[in-house]
Amino acid sequence: xxxxxxxxxxxxxxxxxxxxxxxxxxxxxxxxxxxxxxxxxxxxxxxxxxxxxxxxxxxxxxxxxxxxxxxxxxxxxxxxxxxxxxxxxxxxxxxxxxxxxxxxxxxxxxxxxxxxxxxxxxxxxxxxxxxxxxxxxxxxxxxxxxx
Length: 147
Hints:
The chain is mainly α. 69% of the residues lie in helices and 7% in strands. It is built from seven helices and two strands. It has helices at residues 4-20, 22-29, 33-43, 50-57, 61-73, 95-119, 121-140, and strands at residues 77-81, 89-93. It has a two-stranded antiparallel ribbon with strand order 1-2. Helix 3 (33-43) packs across helix 6 and helix 4 crosses helix 5 (61-73).
């Protein structure tokens, strides 16, 4: 019988090691903070509400405001009052923000491609197959541990 607890320990330990080093560290950086927010906004062609950002990043509105303040100070985003509803603030990337998003995207793709290249074609395809299977299983899992 398989000891899934021990496998889980190994999985967690390995995942932590992966996050700390090399290309995976760069990829992880794109999933948090300013970089994630710039990438999220770049996927939206129109302005978005801060609450949409909060929901996508699963962070508080105060944290969203802090990151937006920083991005605005760097000239990467603008915030405007919605003309149709003056209670709402709309966030949009500036041209410099779009350029920064493209650079982040290039860096992420390059890092991911490098990591997969280290595995070789067969192992890279197998890793992606397994990750997709895990993502699908987690999405469909009814237990509260997976949510």
